[in-house]
Each structure stands twice: as C-alpha cells, then as structure tokens.
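--- STAGE predict ---
source: upstream dedup step, 1 unique chain passed
mode: sequence only
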Amino acid sequence: MVNSIESKVKHWYLLLIFGLISIALGIVVFATPVQTFLVLSVFFSWAFMIAGLLEAIYSIANRDHLSSWGWYLALGILTFILGLQLIMNPSESVMVLAFYIGFWLLFRSMMYISSSLDLKRMNSSNWGWVMFFGIVGVIFSNLLLWNPLITSIAFSIYIGCGLISLGIVQIVLSFSVKKIKNNLF
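--- STAGE serialize ---
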C-alpha cells in the first residue's frame, strides 16, 4: 500500500504554493491588526476557496497513488464550500470566523502531524519540523476555539501565528517531498 507521502511526490509544488499563500495571509494579518477583524472574511473566503480547489485537484491528480484520496477530496470540497459561504454571507461570517479558522487550522495541523510520521518512516530529516509546526498549529487552533470572542488584535495575532506556522510546515513538507521525488527518480 502506498503511503500518503509517496503519493504527494507527483505534485509537491502545490504544497509549496499553499504554504506561500498561508504565510502571505499571516503577514497581511500582522500588518493590519485593527482592520483585520473586519476584512478577514474577504481574505479567508478567497483563501479557503483557492485552497479547497487546489486540494481537490491534488487529490484527483493523485487518486491512483493516494490510498486516502477521497478524504483529501472531501476536505478540499468542504474547504471550498466554507469559502463560498464566507463570500456569500460576509456580515454573518465575521461572527463565526474564529470557529471556521479554528477548526480549519485544527484539521490541517492534525493532517501534518500524520504526514510527519510518514516522513519519519521514509527517513526524511525534516519530519521533526513538520511535527513541530503541526503541533504549533494545533495549539493556536485550540486557542481560537477556546475563546472565539477575543479582541481583534489578539485574534489577529493568533490567526497570523497559526497561518505562518501552517505555511512553514507546508513549505518544509513540500521540499521534503521534492527531495524524496529526486531520490526516487
């Protein structure tokens, strides 16, 4: 049975793109802490839609190699639908944005913790970093879910840290997968 890391080899650059998008969004959050609470729904609506679309494409492109490609496809579709819902209801979305982002970061971070174990089994030297940033993402997501009514500045800091952590883990994972690809071919 092919594990999830081996299946990511084919389109490793999608992980890199998603990581760069996550870091860029994190930087935007830090640059506009007061305004962030009001404008985050627009940024995250599009980010969720793009990330969901990329993940759906990734899962379909790797369906022959990824044993759990259906879960990746389902998560991509759900992420896309959340983004669409945020775009269609921006005033309501601001009220529940912390929950959306908190659960999204939690599930993504848990996926990367699992991927780090796959990297460890493949003897990748970067598995510890993927694990570390996956755990950091879980911590930040739990902070968001624990107190969703925090001030806009604290909200921005937690989201910015979570997004940058998620972006870093994606980039580290993408280069680890690229190195595995180079060693396999």
